[in-house]
Amino acid sequence: MDYRRSLERSSLSRKRREGASTFTMQGREWDLLPGVFAPADSPSTATALGLLGLAGSAAAARGSLLEIGCGTGLIAVSGAVAGCERVVASDINPAAVENAQLNAGRHGVAHKVRTVHSDLFDGLDPDERFDTVFWSSNYVMAPESYRYQHMHERAYVDAGYAAHRRFLAEAWRRTTPNGSVLLHFSTRGDLMALMGIAYECGRALRILRTVPVQEGEHLVQHMLLEVVERRRPGGRADAVPAQAGRRG
């Protein structure tokens, strides 16, 4: 998928949502601030909810959740509503952090959801760990040389997969001993490139589930990936470089 089409989608969505507004998803109304990724303008958020088992009124969840790139906070708040005891909603976009906080209050889970302005994991408490670390990623790769023209574009493309590389290298440090690192990806992204980056980071990708979504003229496969330790032949896990740190 040509990254320029994704940038066009970002521009169109931004113009369409210039004023503060609301939207409806999952039978609930949500606040949407200007400059924040609009879930109603893309199938990715609704698809991510389904992949995580958070779609529908009967959804149930438990434990602690860190959502990277929370946007409006829809997934983070849905996790809290479904039963997660502790949720951190993180985003590099300050408007998204404010937006997620508004929606946590709107749906009565502000006591369980903490919002953090952070570039991936940089703004988090270094000792904080989670049962689930999740990112519904900006899976379309832009050239490494691309310079973002607006914060909103970061929700649509990742220049050189720099953010994906950091996520694959660092996310495991943020899990509890039996925690999991989950990534929402799609065939609009470059799965082979992602697998190569995972290999370089001492990680591997396990496909947990997939769902086909018709996006215009394209049938796109969305997938929930688990990021795990890369195994050597014989089943032994590759050692993680010492400088990468230890899981707490």
Number of strands: 11
CATH architectural arrangement: 3-Layer(aba) Sandwich
In total, how many domains does the architecture comprise?
Answer: 1
Number of helices: 6
- Main sheet summary: 7 strands, mixed
Q: Provide the β-strand percentage band.
A: 25-35%
How are helices and strands ordered from N to C?
Answer: HEEHEHEHEEEEHEHEE
The coarse overall form would be globular
Main-sheet strand order equals 5-4-3-6-9-11-10
- Which structural class matches the secondary elements? alpha/beta
Q: Quote the CATH topology.
A: Rossmann fold
Low-confidence stretches: 236-248
Calculate Rg over CA atoms. 17 Å
Distance between the termini: 38 Å
Mean pLDDT: 92
- Helicity range: 25-40%
CATH homologous superfamily heading: Vaccinia Virus protein VP39
The CATH class assignment is Alpha Beta
Protein traits:
248 residues, Rossmann fold, two-stranded antiparallel sheet, 11 strands, 26% helix, disordered C terminus
Characterise the protein shown here.
This protein is an alpha/beta fold. The protein has a single domain, classed as Rossmann fold. Helix content is 26%, strand content 31%. The chain has 6 helices and 11 strands. The chain has helices at residues 3-16, 44-52, 74-82, 94-106, 162-170, 191-200; strands at residues 21-25, 28-32, 64-68, 86-91, 113-117, 130-136, 140-142, 157-159, 175-186, 203-215, 218-229. It has a 7-stranded mixed β-sheet. The model is unreliable at 236-248 (pLDDT under 50).
